[in-house]
Amino acid sequence: MSDILKVNSSGADVVALQGALRDAGFNPGVIDGFYGQATQAAVIAFQRSENLAADGVVGQNTARALGLAAIPSIPSVVSGVTPQVVSQMFPLTPIGNINTNLPVVLDALVSATLTDKPMVLMALSTIRAETESFEPISEGRSRFNTSPSGPPFDLYDNRKDLGNAGPPDGSNFRGRGFVQLTGRANYIQYGGEIGKDLVGNPALANDPDVAAELLARFLNDREKLIREALVSHDLATARRLVNGGSNGLERFQDAFNVGSHLIPETIVS
């Protein structure tokens, strides 16, 4: 099996898939070698049973869980994601910033095996929503993080939900990077996951290589739910899974929809 299996796939690999689903107790209907709606429904039911992303697509994780002898290659569209394509997703962004930072973002996605079209679009659209300049940035002051007469980011200082423990945590652990990592708890967690002392040196989150790795890791941790949102094109939920709200949703949706038309479906490199 060289490619993932999904609706409208056909052939011997689909026959094997249908047989494995039947043996696992998930009836795909007639075993005819065609991946139709009945097979998709059986795949989704199996994925939910196994706590996999219920997207109806048979990739490596689902194939292994079904015990299929042939495991699909990891799909990749990375070679089709060029600065020229991304500049159309970021119409207000200097292309020099894209030329500089796109390679490190794509390298991080490759390392995290987030190279299929939905997750690449998710990553790029997140950057568009968080930092339209396509460069890691620090959060600016606003009425949501700074009181009228207080020091910068004082409204973050005692946010228990962010793990902050009083001044100067609000300023030290304000949003940074491509994904706007925010709060002491996140700096501790993700610094530990990537092996960087982000608590001792919070500004390191704005280093492009670190920022790209943080973005990929953040998406990895939410991958299952993100995929389930994207399969139904629920971009508002996908955005909320990263941002916690709807900030930047219009930019996110615009980048995702433009990129959907420009990036090829699958290029396995």
| Strand numbers in spatial order across the main sheet | 1-2
State the helix count: 12
Q: Approximately what portion of the residues adopt beta-strand conformation?
A: under 5%
Low-pLDDT runs of 5+ residues are none
Amount of helix: 40-55%
Order of helices and strands: HHHHHHEHEHHHHH
Structure summary, number of beta strands: 2
Mean pLDDT: 94
Class by alpha and beta content: mainly alpha
The major β-sheet equals:
2 strands, antiparallel
Instruction: Give Rg in angstroms.
Output: 21 Å
Instruction: Indicate the overall shape.
Output: elongated
What do you see in this structure?
Helix 5 crosses helix 9 and helix 6 (117-130) runs antiparallel to helix 12. The protein is mostly helical. The mean pLDDT is 94. The two termini are 15 Å apart. 49% of the residues lie in helices and 1% in strands. It contains twelve helices and two strands; from the N terminus they run ααααααβαβααααα. It has a two-stranded antiparallel sheet. It has helices spanning 12-23, 37-49, 60-66, 83-89, 95-111, 117-130, 169-172, 184-194, 208-221, 223-231, 235-243, 249-262; strands spanning 137-138, 176-177.
